[in-house]
Amino acid sequence: PLWYTLCDRYGLYVVDEANIETHGMVPMNRLSDDPVWLPAMSQRVTRMVQRDRNHPSIIIWSLGNESGHGANHDALYRWIKSEDPSRPVQYEGGGANTAATDIICPMYARVDQDQPFPAVPKWSIKKWLSMPGEQRPLILCEYAHAMGNSLGGYAKYWQAFRQ
């Protein structure tokens, strides 16, 4: 696609994200943990990697967005790493407790407060950064969500970033 060619030319970095999202499914990992859905998810990931792997602007592969975490993500992570071990793989639903991501990239993680969800807990940013043996980088894929006319808590994030 032209977009990736332009990114290559102008030096923009790209996180190439598979078209996988199960937002609204309850539980969110219902499809990502169901082997019936592995072929559909696999097709989206393999086509993305095979189509885009020659673009130097793509620095990270992403397994999708907001689709819980399940065995299908683990299988897709292993496939990408076997196909292209040179790039990291990220998945925001992977959390810190899974091997489906090379980058911890939580969505709306709080600076000081843990969110101990049963399946995939979201630890506070400060806790993630201080976990013993954790060497993966932490990149917030989304933070400081705002509705209405107030952002709230933005300064707290930037204080933590600077530390």
TrEMBL record:
Keyword Mitochondrion tagged: no
Swiss-Prot/TrEMBL keywords: Glycosidase, Hydrolase
GO CC entries: beta-galactosidase complex
Segments forming domain Glycoside hydrolase family 2 catalytic: 2-162
Top enzyme category: hydrolase
One Pfam family of this chain: Glyco_hydro_2_C
The enzyme's E.C. designation: 3.2.1.23
Enzymatic reactions: Hydrolysis of terminal non-reducing beta-D-galactose residues in beta-D-galactosides
PROSITE patterns noted in UniProt: GLYCOSYL_HYDROL_F2_2 (PS00608)
Keyword Hydrolase included in the entry's annotation: yes
Any GO BP: lactose catabolic process
Gene Ontology terms for molecular function: beta-galactosidase activity
InterPro entries named in the record: Bact_Beta-galactosidase (IPR050347), GH (IPR017853), Glyco_hydro_2 (IPR006101), Glyco_hydro_2_AS (IPR023232), Glyco_hydro_2_cat (IPR006103)
Alphabetical list of PANTHER family matching this protein: BETA-GALACTOSIDASE
Name this polypeptide is given: beta-galactosidase
UniProt lineage: Bacteria, Pseudomonadati, Pseudomonadota, Gammaproteobacteria, Enterobacterales
Gene symbol of the encoding locus: lacZ
